[in-house]
Design brief:
Immunoglobulin-like, twelve-stranded parallel β-sheet, 4 helices, 34% strand, globular
Length: 588
């Protein structure tokens, strides 16, 4: 595929003409291949170099060399439908990263990314808005996914495991100052460090319906003592490590250190999680609070953070349900409606080290309540959760014992919570997901296709200026979420949500090339996306019919069709050459 870089500079309305599917196969050639399905390239790295914004790189089954760089906007990298592709790098050396993600709107789907040193995946600026869906990421020297400050990163239905295979302390994901990260319906396991590690002043993290198990560090960690050079000292002068984060409906099991930890957090909400058999090593607690500490700056105590409706089960008698460390918090911090149980000794204990001079250990629940004012409606005792599936059994004291929130209505399995809620990640009585997931499942088995989630809409079309129509295939949606992006540099964002049973919507986006997709949604989760619909909205021509000035534009007649409109956007010397595969190339 011979193409000059000028194609990437065309106005937005030309994007649909430039975007293409690019195929890669182990039998292909980077020398004689064209990227067509019959003459594929041999490596994803070469395909990414040839791609332009908006292209989709499709890998046929097989294993490919890593060090792949995705550095154009809105690229999609995925396995061929019905097949499974692997990108691999050795997990030794200093810069053997398997996959680099640089640019906006990148999407990685149904792909296995293995090995890499120090990371399997590194997401770096200027990336803003990338998504990993239905991927397996494993075998990293140190960290599975490293996010170094880009915002709007999404992980859905991924499996991240066997991290830290060479270097101790390997995390599943380590995100530094990446706002709006979403981690949903993912399975983290067998990490030689912490499963989910979010820090550096990031805002609005949402971690929900994930399974984190068999890790050598903490289960889920909000905050740490990040280097100030990586933080926003202007927008966040107090150096909070995590702001407005939400951790809910997660199962955290069999972890050597603490189940859930907050460091220097502000307005974070830890709701309806099940933490089972945590603190099995030499330290840790069920829930642990620590102040943020940054050299040369005042300490950052936790403020306005809530721990509500959680099941907390340490695995040995010496470890506490909750450990409040010295100077950890200040102001309003809430603990309530939690259920505490210790596998080593049923009574268990609490540690209050907030003021070092008066630290108290081995507190009973009554002593803890009196001393701190926390956990007024919490209880101790066996939660009645399975030691293997972590779901509630019949007769559990956690059933109908929680408080209710308006901000969400689902549970770990994607079932709707009804009546008085249950404590923990599981609302009893619904269809339970297998934990751990069945062999061959990527992620938890929830999210798209989770019990109770709606069927995807199909046959999306975009006509006129602009009318969307689609086919409603579900009978249980609560609405449809419509997303739109511009091309070539746009990122999908929610345009609006419309009511259940709606099958059309009108939009007025203005001139340009616009892409749309639609999801059916309900409390159990989202459907898969509909097909993508694209439409080019032309600039309104103020000239009388037949009087179009050809000077500089190269078009002497009234434009008709997208190719003619693209002609108007090019320099007078440009020549358009049809290139096949629904693409026009530009030749100077």
């Amino acid at each position: 595929m011979i193409r000059t870089t000028l194609c990437t500079t065309l106005v937005a309305m030309c994007s649909a003409l430039c975007a293409a599917d690019i195929y890669v196969a182990t039998t292909g050639s980077d020398t004689t291949g064209t990227g067509a399905i019959g003459t594929p390239y041999a490596t994803p790295r070469h395909a990414a170099q040839q791609a332009v914004a908006g292209d989709t790189i499709i890998l046929r089954a097989g294993t490919y060399a890593g060090n792949v760089e995705l550095n154009k906007d809105n690229l999609t990298l995925r396995s061929y439908t019905g097949e499974w592709a692997v990108i691999h790098m050795p997990n030794s050396g200093t810069t053997n990263v398997t996959l680099w993600v640089y640019n906006t709107g990148t999407r990685i789907e149904r792909l296995e990314i293995s090995g890499g040193s120090p990371y399997s995946v590194h997401v770096v600026p200027p990336c803003n808005g990338c998504e990993f869906a239905d991927c397996k990421i494993h075998g990293a020297d140190w960290i599975g996914i490293k996010v170094s400050q880009p915002d709007n990163v999404t992980l859905r239905r991924c499996e991240i495991y066997d991290t830290g295979s060479v270097t101790a302390g390997g995390m599943g994901i380590d995100c530094v100052n990446g706002d709006n990260i979403l981690i949903q319906d993912c399975h983290f396991h067998d990490c030689n460090g912490t499963g989910i590690y979010l820090k550096g002043g990031l805002r609005n993290a949402l971690v929900e319906r994930n399974l984190v198990r068999n890790v050598a560090g903490d289960g889920i960690l909000l905050g740490e003592s990040t280097g100030v050079a990586f933080m926003d000292t202007v927008g966040n002068p107090e150096l909070y490590e995590a702001i407005d984060g939400v951790v809910r409906n997660n199962i955290v099991a069999n972890v050597a250190a603490s189940g859930l930890v907050t460091y220097g957090s502000l307005r974070c909400k830890i709701y309806n999680n099940t933490v089972y058999n945590c603190a099995t090593g030499t330290g840790g607690a069920g829930l642990r609070l620590i102040k943020g500490a940054h050299a040369g700056y005042p300490d950052t105590p936790i403020k306005q953070t809530e721990f509500v409706n959680n099941i907390v089960v340490p695995g040995q008698a010496s470890r506490p349900f909750v450990q409040v460390t010295t100077g950890s918090h200040d102001g309003t911090v809430i603990f309530n409606y939690n259920r505490y149980f210790n596998l080593g000794t049923p009574s268990g204990v609490f540690w209050d080290e907030l003021v070092a001079a008066t630290a108290a250990y081995n507190l009973s629940l009554a002593q803890w309540q009196t001393r701190t004012g926390f956990d007024t409606n919490s209880t101790t005792g066996d939660p009645g959760a399975s030691a293997t599936t972590y779901h509630l059994g019949g007769g559990s004291a956690c059933i109908d014992a929680a408080t209710t929130f308006a901000s969400f209505v689902d549970d770990y399995d994607g079932n709707t919570r009804t009546g008085t809620w249950d404590i923990g990640a599981d609302e009893s009585g619904g269809t339970a997901l297998p934990t751990p997931p069945a062999a061959g499942t990527v992620g938890t088995g929830g999210g798209v296709g989770a019990p109770g989630s709606p069927t995807a809409p199909t046959n999306l079309t975009a006509t006129g200026t602009v009318t969307l129509n689609w086919q409603d295939n579900s009978g249980n949606e609560t609405g449809f979420r419509i997303e739109r992006r511009s091309a070539p540099a746009g990122t999908y964002a929610t345009l609006t949500t419309v009511a259940a049973n709606t099958t059309s919507h009108t939009d007025d986006p203005g001139p340009g090339s616009w892409y749309y997709r639609v999801y059916a949604v309900n409390a159990a989760g989202d459907s898969a996306a509909s097909n993508e619909a694209n439409i080019s909205v032309p600039v309104v021509d103020p000239s009388p019919p037949g009087k179009k000035d050809s000077g500089g534009g190269g078009c002497s007649a009234q434009p008709s069709g997208p190719a003619a409109w693209m002609c108007l956007a090019l320099a007078a010397s440009a020549t358009l050459i049809p290139a096949g595969r629904n693409r026009w190339r530009h030749s100077a």
